[in-house]
Amino acid sequence: MTTAILWFRRDLRLDDNPALQAALRAHERLLPVYIHAPDEAAPWQPGAASRWWLHHSLTALQAQLRARGVELQLARGDSLAVLRDLLRTSGAEAVYWNRQYEPAAIARDTRIKQALREDGCAAHSFNASLFVEPWDIRTGQGGPYRVFTPYWRNARAQLQPRPGAAAPARITPCSVNARHAVADLALLPRIAWDAGLRESWRPGAAGAAEALEDFCAGALRGYREQRDWPAQAGTSRLSPHLHFGEISPAQILWKLEETGRDAGAAWREAAEPFLRELGWRDFSHHLLYHFPHTPLQNLNPQFDAFPWREPDAQQLQAWQRGRTGIPIVDAGLRELWHTGWMHNRVRMLVASFLCKNLRLHWLHGARWFWDTLVDADLANNTQGWQWTAGSGADAAPYFRIFNPVTQGERFDPDGAYVRRWLPELAGQGFKSIHSPWREPALLARSGYPQPLVDLAASREEALAAYQAMRSMG
Q1: Which residues form the Photolyase/cryptochrome alpha/beta domain (predicted)?
Q2: CB atoms within 10 A of CB 285
Q3: What is the arithmetic mean of pLDDT over 127-155?
Q4: Measured between alpha carbons, how far is residue 112 from residues 115, 125, 292, 305, 332 in Å?
Q5: How many CB atoms lie under 10 A from the CB of residue 290?
Q6: What is the C-alpha to C-alpha distance for residues 22 and 87, in angstroms, rounded to an integer?
Q7: CB–CB of 346/334 below 8 Å?
Q8: In this structure, are strands 3-8 and 29-36 parallel, antiparallel, or unpaired?
Q9: What's the rounded Cα separation, in Å, for the pair 337 and 358?
């Protein structure tokens, strides 16, 4: 009987898992392994919220595998060394895995694939997390896309809904002594700050399937109109499940296809904006693959000369903890701190305030999001921050500066979102919950801070800085 090693990474599911299916087609026995090697992702090792999610997702995957008769091996250390040791002790002939697209992961996987093949071991990798591989889609001139709309037009035409292969009912194991338990990976916080995460999420493939089912049965029908309203449950909240591979874009596409057959044309039309948002996820990976320097450097080199302010530690901490004095910005940052997630419309407002009103480099925000988001994804995080800063592909012009007061009045008109996350303002009776500084007596009584900066003045200073940068180039 032949044996294969299945190397799990961020593909923590059994349904629609190409590497799993390929291994089972070619071999009788399977040795599944997860190797905890965070330093191999340097300088973007997983943040605290991501580690929390990973602990629970691995626990869920372990239970799924046990129900099918096989144990998930958990290991720590250098990935190549661990794989070589498992190959020796198990007698396996091949290693299968699903691809990752971050620069450090590509370099590691290329090195490992070459080393294993030189050892005489077969090594196979697959696409399990994107609609289209980053290298499989090009402009008419043969280069990478920098603008989303033509990218998505090309990619959308290639999408073919298909049912993914179901998880096997039984897997024949290869017996190797277990190395570690999930707890040994020390992923959970030493100080229990994670109560809000536990209240908000159900990591694992079952949680992902439940979230998709609920979304298709409910909020998807009004997604086009309601996705920008942070007080409403108008989005799918699938982003962390997608990041950890508990569900694939192909599974979501097939679910939309299946549901749309019975739901009718109006429902299918409502689903298209959501599918387009999944397209943005693919586009972010396309950009990261073709421009691997962008997690730390501007895509647009003109912004290398931008006069960012030196960060003031107290001011930056006030932003991080939701004490800027701008209610919808602070509500978003407190939602993030409590739940590990933030509504996408509010993410843009929070980022715009940091980059344009405080005029701090986007990396300060990208690093904070990286540590606190359960859906922290290098491609999406990089693209989102560079888009807001004006330095990335298809970016918002730098002079597009969100006014958080008017944005709050438009997308949180009754202040429900702000009142939920800023309880000190909830019962004060402000005429405008989004600009409490206009009522000094009530503001003083609430204990809520004055704004860190004047919105109008800081906007003008940001525009002047932008013009100064342009005059240099």
Answers
A1: 2-131
A2: 23
A3: 96
A4: 5, 11, 20, 39, 41
A5: 17
A6: 18
A7: no
A8: parallel
A9: 20
pLDDT, tens only, 178-209: 778 999 999 999 888 999 999 999 999 999 99
Tokens in use for 317? 């901490």
| DSSP string computed for 104-137 | HHHHHHHHHHHHHHHTT-EEEEE--S-SS-GGG-
Give the catalytic positions in this structure. 277, 280, 308, 344, 362, 385
Chain mean pLDDT for the chain:
95
- Angstrom distance (rounded) from CA 90 to CA 2: 10
Which domains occur in the chain, in start order? 3-128 (3.40.50.620), 129-164+203-290 (1.25.40.80), 301-472 (1.10.579.10)
- Helix, strand, coil tally for the chain in percent (to 5): 55, 5, 40
Evaluate whether 353 touches 359 at the Cβ level (below 8 Å): no
Place of tokens 């000369």: 305
Handedness of CA 84, 44, 384, 215 (dihedral sign): positive
Please report how many Cα atoms fall inside a 13 Å half-sphere around the Cα of residue 168, on the Cβ side.
Answer: 21
φ, ψ for residue 282, nearest 5 deg: -60, -40
Residue bearing tokens 């359960």 = 374
- Quote the CA–CA distance of 136 and 126 in Å, as a whole number: 14
- Cα angle, residue 132 at apex, residues 220 and 129 outer, rounded to 5°: 65
Q: What kind and span of H or E run contains 99?
A: none
Query: Band of the pLDDT at 162, cuts 50, 70, 90?
Result: very high
CA distance 343 to 232: 10
Cβ contacts of 237 within 8 Å, gap of 6 or more: 211, 215, 341
Using the 8-state DSSP alphabet, how is residue 27 labeled? -
| 473 — pLDDT class (breaks 50, 70, 90) | low
Q: Which of 27, 28, 22, 40 is nearest to 111 (CA)?
A: 40
Q: pLDDT at position 192, please?
A: 87
Q: Distances in Å between the alpha carbon of 171 and those of 19, 30, 93, 124, 182?
A: 14, 7, 17, 19, 21
Structure tokens at 138: 């090009």
Q: Could you tell me the two tokens for 177? A: 């002594």
**Above pLDDT 90, what percent of the chain?**
90
With vertex at residue 63, the alpha carbon angle to CA 58 and CA 66, rounded to the nearest 5 degrees, is: 120
d(CA 348, CA 396): 10
Share of the chain above pLDDT 70, in %: 99
